[in-house]
Amino acid sequence: MASLVPWLKEALEQGQAAVAATAPAHIDLLRDGLGSDASKVAFIDQDEWYLRPAMTIAGWKEWLTKFAQRGFEYTRAIGEVKLRSDRSHTDELDQVRIEPQRCFPGCSTWIVCPYDMRSLPKFIIEEVWRTHPTVWNANRQASDRYVDPATLLTNIPEPMPAVVGDPFAELRIGTSPVEVRKRAREAGVAARLSTERIDDLLVALNEIVANSITHGRGPVGVRVWVMANGVVCEVTDHGGGVNDPLAGYLLPGTEMSGGGLWMARQLCDSIAFTNQGGASTVRFTIYASNR
User: Fold this and answer.
1) What is the rounded distance in angstroms from the CA atom of residue 224 to the CA atom of residue 169?
2) Which CATH number fits the domain that encloses residue 247?
């Protein structure tokens, strides 16, 4: 509050746009601190904002575009990442690994990401020092531990989603694409996915399979597992795989961005890529709840 309220007031005094994505309790504190200026700041509930990194990136881009269309030349944003205690170590790290500047080229934006050092685990704080070029801890300073996000994601790749037991279904695309979709839908029903999440599963699977067919080499294999909390799918081909760690994070139409992978990242709760032994594998998870 001592740092961010004056920072937001300064933005308003300079005719800049201001937006804050944070916890509801923190929104109340910011509103109280800003007083009558609170109506000039856009507030976003972090519970709805930080579902998946790719969705968050797309959302920020939409807000920045909206402000630019309203005539604002500069935007200040607060982005307090929601870190869930029920998610794995690497799931939490995904939320802080992607540098906004790489995702919004050409946008005049200053984004501050607050982290509570009193309660967050040490590994999260260490990751913050590596994923943010500037750290504001009493005083703003350059982080001497900062690592370019592409390098960091290459050195610490996201692990493949875990599976247990035999696959619910195992097929090859060349035989019957219709059968693959049918079996994936059956897996969604068996996992008690909602109709919406089953649709997400089928769209994500279709995009990844299409990517394998277009850019990989056959045969393309698909395996599907029904898990306690959702469905895990795996698509394997014999092409070169995905070599860019930022693939699918950047919006379609920008450099290094692929529309199919971008769509998959919007829908999947976790997704990982491996290239081993001449085989390229993509494995992703769709949870029962769209969280």
Assistant:
1) 5
2) 3.30.565.10
Residues 98 and 192 in one domain: no
User: Could you report the per-residue pLDDT of 178-229, keeping only the tens digit for each?
Assistant: 888 899 999 999 999 999 999 999 999 998 998 888 887 878 999 999 998 8
Domain hosting residue 237, numbered range = 169-287
Last residue of a domain, one of 155, 189, 217: 155
pTM for the model = 0.70
Helices (H), the chain: 4-13, 24-34, 46-49, 53-69, 89-97, 100-103, 122-131, 149-155, 177-190, 195-215, 259-267
CA distance 162 to 237: 20
Are 16 and 102 contained in the same domain? Answer: yes
Query: What distance in Å separates the CA atoms of residue 165 and residue 146, rounded to the nearest whole number?
Result: 40
60's CB contacts (< 8 A; 6+ apart) are 77, 79, 100, 103, 104, 111
Phi and psi at 248, nearest 5°, equal 90, -15
Q: Tell me: the pLDDT tens digits for 101-113?
A: 556 656 688 989 8
Cα gap 81→161, rounded to integer Å:
22
Domain end marker among 155, 178, 213: 155
**Contact, 23 vs 234, CB < 8 A?**
no
